[in-house]
Protein 1
Amino acid sequence: MNALISVSDKTGIVEFARALHALGIRLISTGGTAGLLAQEGLPVTEVAQLTGFPEMLDGRVKTLHPKVHGGLLARRDLPEHMAALKAQGIDMIDLLVVNLYPFEATVAKPGCTLEDAIENIDIGGPAMVRSAAKNWKDVGVVTDASQYPQVLQELKTDGKLSERTRFALAVAAFNRISNYDAAISDYLSSIQEGGGRALFPAQSNGRFVKLQDLRYGENPHQQAAFYRDLYPAPGSLVTARQLQGKELSYNNIADADAAWECVKSFDAPACVIVKHANPCGVALGKDALEAYSKAFKTDSTSAFGGIIAFNRSVDADAAQAVSRQFVEVLMAPGFSPEALEIFKGKANVRILQLAMPPGGATDWDNGRNAIDVKRVGSGLLMQTADNRELNLGELKVVTRKQPTPQQLEDLLFAWKVAKFVKSNAIVFCKDGMTMGVGAGQMSRLDSARIASIKAQHAGLSLQGTVVASDAFFPFRDGLDVVVDAGAACVIQPGGSMRDEEVIAAANERGVAMVFSGVRHFRH
């Protein structure tokens, strides 16, 4: 049995090769890998010795040879293939171990040049992988160090790889080649004339890995599956671990993502309750229990069957309070043993644990998408994600009346919530708690009225509240509606041709108003 080994990442390769040798498998290798194995005292045949042709062009050509690809591609069940090998003096290669030049890691480095990228495009490696994977019925192809243990175990136990394993390895190999080629295409398609890279490449190649098939999609007559990015961001929903409960549905996952994205945007202990993709209750508190209790008060009717997310661990007190309502999904960075024990009595509740993102300078470090994608008929819309943060120094007070320090805190809180509410969004808040949420209406006036009605039904007074509007008020009537409801301070982007009319109305009504200069449409 012959094994050809040619790896860029040499993690674990010496131990793997030593184990292959102990099983009586002949080792064939290239360049640096051959040198390493020989240095470790392993008998190894260099590819140049096998082919009778030296490596050339600085190593660009070394395995592109019939004695390599003939040994990989020959079908053992076809006598004419075996005769051709014998006539040409070609040995069969039964196991191929290859990982590719680090193209993805190279182009991710700051200052990577086009020349650097080109030199890290592997040619011989992918060619061998494709040959071996095509001939999977006779050849095993190993493309990642994580596969070494299983391969060795089967070889030790059975003396060969099973057909099932060879096929699985071939699928993994073609997936790796696909991802590798997509990374090259994405990079080269982004190169602009005169240098630099475009944010959106001329061709975009999505790379996603299926996590699970779902029972159905948004509705029972639709089929669905859940995928993750090839390289998911830490602290993103796809990294969650389900601790108990029924299988997640399509709608569960969509709503859970909305809740998690919102709750992790707060530094203080927070709770977010989401129903049908909109926050129906958001609050801050001294701990998880207080945050939940305040969030639940906003709209206890809509919270029924909702998704609840915390940015702090859930203890027994918070768990006891949550367990009194019907909840579909509960998610948090952690759960005390007592909290988990409480929910054992509600076995259908889906409990997800996922780490808060580590923080940092980039969106990826914060567990957020850098690019958002929306499917349209036979096409995609792509945009940078709405990850814009706002601080007090960016607020512009445009009225005679100035917001109080407490109102300024509530304005920023309301603004964060509004970012996660479907447009047109109107959000009343006070003391770190949503008091009324109006979402997804065709008219901003209707969103304001609905938010007021919800507060009334919840028994909450809107007197002295602050209001966030995700986009500007095109006329003064929207401002009048929220002030009539009790708002004392308003935050909006500004930018309407009638800004002066709206500012005059705010002065007339004796309320404070600030412009954020940022719009947060969410469709």
Protein 2
Amino acid sequence: MILGIDVGGTHTDSVLMQNGKILRKSKVMTDKSDLLKSVMLATRSVAEAAEIKQLQRIVLSTTISTNAVAQHQLDPVGLIVMSGPGVSHRDLPLSDKSSYIAGYMNHRGVEAESVDEDEIVALKKHFAATGIEHVGVVGKFSTRSPAHELTVQALLNGQTQHVKHVTVGHQLSGALDFPRRISTAYLNEAIWRLHSGMADQLGAYMQQLGIDVPLYILKADGGTIDVEQSRHYPVQTILSGPAATIMGVLPFISAARDSVSIDVGGTTTDIALFADGAPLLEPKGVQIEEHKTLIRGLLTHSIAVGGDSHVRVINQQLVIGPERRGSAMAFDGPVPTPTDAMIVLGLADIGDKAKALAAMSSLAAELDQTPEQTAQAIMSLACETIAAKVRSMIAEVNRKPVYTIHEMLEGKELAPTEAIIVGGPAPYLAKHVGQLLNMAVVVPENSDVINASGAAMARTTVELTLMADTEEGIMTIAEEGLQTDIPKSFTMADLVAVGKERLEQIARIAGAQESDLEIEVADSQTFNVIRNSATTGKNIRVRLQIKPGLTKHALQ
């Protein structure tokens, strides 16, 4: 059996699953001040003591890190940046939080300028004086050689006990994008303390359950990572909520067509697209708020329309959202919501209908309408807003190459014909949204806990970037900062073979099951090195990944 838990801002959902089926499901209120309490209650709501002892794995998705970024509740971070020549500091992100120091590797990983240790000593004093305990260290070409980042990290760790944790940029991604690497390192440190505290609470949770089974956190790419391993890379757990939705709807997606998933929650609606059954990917990395990162993640867009969105009248026009001020008035909330409109129209038989009618009446009086007319207008506006966002998202995707979690689809034009609609309000909105989009509609069973089931079924994913320079006779594993000598006869096949062996080792450490170790080449390139009109070697680059998808444990 598998336990899936989705810790949301309002509710914590849980499912107990076996053989791909939900045995029990539950929703409990999230206690934001006590994660352990929420997770324990969610567990005991679906699993008895004897069943807890039989669990094979537990997986959580959570909005904790995402909300911290969105609400700017981040720890101060000292950024140490080695940018080298040719880059204006004004053009780099977070320049106001950055200290630029000497030290530069060229594009082939050869030192062009050494690190000045006196600068690190001075920064150590500055961090101590300003109360900075978290530091990110980023060099421009650190994926080609991490030596400078590791030198600075060692100096910080060796010279002060004030710095609690240091992130080095090369370990976060093998991609070259320097500005995105700065933002990624910053966020990793800015939420490190929060995430580590959550991991501590989850350790206490496992002790209270009295079991020793794998415990995972869902990442932005729809894959899982062992909780203890996630302490090193908390930034990977940002946007795990929307990723959980995508993994939850994956069993209902047809490989024979393009599709869209629409997750209508209490505060927001999350939209994702599928090409021939495969979720679309953010090709460069996810963006959260103003931060463009290198974090591999699924392509999702959110709009501030949900079942509990505040509905009001401004200049004789209905406005839905963007804020949520509480539950619907039918559930003793403070302001009218779309949920109240659904109840008045008889679409949902929940809550106190008299209170819902009072909510609609207060708006109707401002519009000179009946409560029923206002309720219908609210539903129409909500559905039209969602449909418009879906259309604009499809149009935006079709202006660029289409990337899925497996590959780039050359010349692909996305044309979804089916919408999978999930979330609590899904049954009440589905028909209207489908008509507006001219798409067939599916509302899966148990769609109200789709995030929890998606987390439960996700497999562990890791990726690795390798580069071979046969002219220099050097192979680099970017994320691990490892370099080794290779012969000039080294080939792409050799590089892939080395990468697969190492990726399997990393995947096992991250918690992957043996049955899920399906490795695929996500990207590969070969360039000739030309000197004096002659080919003197090759630059070979490859990115490997554990194939994203559903764990075979979920189907057993």
